[in-house]
Specification:
alpha/beta, three-stranded parallel sheet, globular
Length: 267
Amino acid sequence: MSSQHLPPSDPFSIAGVTYASRLLVGTGKYRDLEETRLAIEASGANIVTVAVRRTNLGQHEGEPNLLDVIDPARYTILPNTAGCYDAASAVRTCRLAREMLDDHRLVKLEVLADQRTLYPNVIETLAAAETLVAEGFEVMVYTSDDPILAKRLEAIGCVAIMPLAAPIGSGLGIQNRYTLREIIEQARVPVIVDAGVGTASDASIAMELGCDAVLMNTAIAEAGQPVLMAQAMRLALQSGRLAFLAGRMPRRTHASASSPIDGRFHA
């Protein structure tokens, strides 16, 4: 199904920009840049996130440059602060990205607590978000699945809230449906599941819950056939979004006849 078959009154916008795809993808863990290019193309994504501290965007001459295969004229490049463990380093990384990408303001903020779980350090995340918003950045923020914290980050001025569904890279799927629903129902900015998706059904569930989009990397890059999985994820998001808009049938504790018999004549 192509994006033009989706309801025309169902736009997906971040910081005032509307995108055709609700799938955001990363660029890490692929075998090479060519596989990266093919998988991203197959995903149909418009927004591609890049770890500034780990990826060459032209700052290292003579090394492969990701921008040679990910055209900034075609994709919105979303610099992220992966690998940062305090607010100061995250802010520095965003400033560096702004310089390398010609005053680019849209960034993905993530400040991690430890290397084992890669859970967000919410205290440092709040501090970094306040600084970046004050400096004019448009901050999409990776956070825990805490509805109170999500509300606080929105109040600071973050343009998208990105709660984890399970630990980064775990592939465990949606482990926290209740808290995600709470965040979705109270949010006035896009809510994007970030981390935990393992396969297409996980992505579809996230969309059926009412998430605005899903960001993923490992689920595609570490699949047996990354390009094929990217296609599956593209379709899963479209299917899940349509199911959310359609509204599922009520859950029942017993069966109900599909063909009513009330009022019929019997021999």
